[in-house]
Amino acid sequence: MKIATLLLPLLLACPLLPAAAQAAAVGTATRSVNVSGSAEIKVAPDEILLNVGVETRNVELAPAKRLNDERVAAALAFLTRSGVPAKDVQTDFISIEPQFDYDDTDRASQQRSRLVPVMYVVRKSIGIRLTKVEDFETVLAGLLDNGVQYIHGIEFRTSQLRKHRDAARALAVQAAKDKADALTAGLGARRGAVQQVSESYSGGWWRSGSAWGGGGRGQMMQNTVQNLGGGEGGDGATLSVGQISVSASVDVTFAIE
What we know:
This protein is of the alpha+beta class. Helix content is 35%, strand content 35%. It has helices spanning 2-13, 16-29, 61-81, 107-113, 136-144, 161-186, and strands spanning 32-43, 47-58, 89-99, 119-130, 150-157, 191-203, 205-209, 226-227, 239-240, 244-256. The strands form 3 sheets. A 5-stranded antiparallel beta sheet has the order 3-4-2-5-7. It starts with a helix and ends with a strand.
């Protein structure tokens, strides 16, 4: 009888232990604050990536290709004279496209036009890396005078992207800590240890360009580049390099003490 009396309180207490532990865990998990911090650094680009194109057309393939080769050779020779290292120049796209005329009303001629091209279009693109940013406008104008017809892309970049991202991240982390301190202090508490953190980046370049035959691809990423800022009556400059943005953001969960 005494044994049964002793066991009864123990049995009644056992179901309460998991519930109490769960409640305590929930209470601890909710004592946290989630904040975000962001920072942006403006830097001057120190390199420019250009992608330019040459297009030729002829009713025969051989003349179209020969003329394209001559224009590309003229552009490459100009880059060599301008002091651009060979390692920074690359032909990165080649296309030969036969075109057919499907507008004939005569059935026999229409059948023949589907077998024999009426025009050949030869296209080549040249990728160029410029490390002398101040020579950009001169090089671009020279390319257009030496066989180049299309500007597919202009990308302003920084070669010190890792350094600037590290600096932006440090500022973003400090912003998150300051925000957490302000929130917890306003509630009569203190910021505790970090429970979770994640980060993201953007920027470090600015790009503009168009596809073959026109049609812009638009701007990418945040930027402060002023394009075509000159004009008549100005000092002759038609492009201001300006600055590019390097941004970082963090999401941090802190414990509340």
